[in-house]
Amino acid sequence: MVLQGVLPSRPRPFDLFSNMYLAGTIIFGGGPVVIPLLRSYVVEPGWVSPRDFLLGLAIIQAFPGPNFNFAVYLGALAFAGTGTPTVLGALLAYLGIFVPGIILAVGVQSIWQALRAKPWVISLLRGINATAVGLVFTAVYRLWENGYLTPESSNGRSLGQEPWWVVVAAITYAETAWFNVPPAMAIIFGAVLGLVRYGVVGTS
After folding, report:
1. Residue 82 to residue 89: CA distance in whole angstroms
2. Backbone phi, then psi, for 157, in 5-degree steps?
3. 13: which DSSP letter?
């Protein structure tokens, strides 16, 4: 992190690893929180297009496993067209985002059993949990603001500009939260609703 701040010119492999390491270090709240961070770390430098980012996000959400795996996809894309093997980018991104959590788990595991019962630690964790909830809502809002692709706007538009996608999001949430519909079925149903819209209005 210090080198990233003081070096005037850095190779992309170094920047990719340090960005992913930073994302893995400051994540609270689980998978949804990391998505806007990753977007700012790979899209804003121009390594990955907004369209490819959103398409990859849609694909990764349809599969089981942690959202951190999305970093592997982004790492490979970050090296596409640079002459550097994309597998190196995938490996650097994987290590960068997972190593901080592994180090933290291994480093504090031995003292965690003694600390977890102390009242001040319990209060601390309650504050962290509340912060994590706020970060999740922030992440959802940021994705909402640029989660809709059109042929005219490949950078993403707000889902709120198209009422149909608001309906799809609300139905999908209700299915999983209140009616215990399996996530896989909710994803398939959302895909069907997308096809319905395409059949009615085409690609406009």
Report:
1. 11
2. -125, 165
3. H
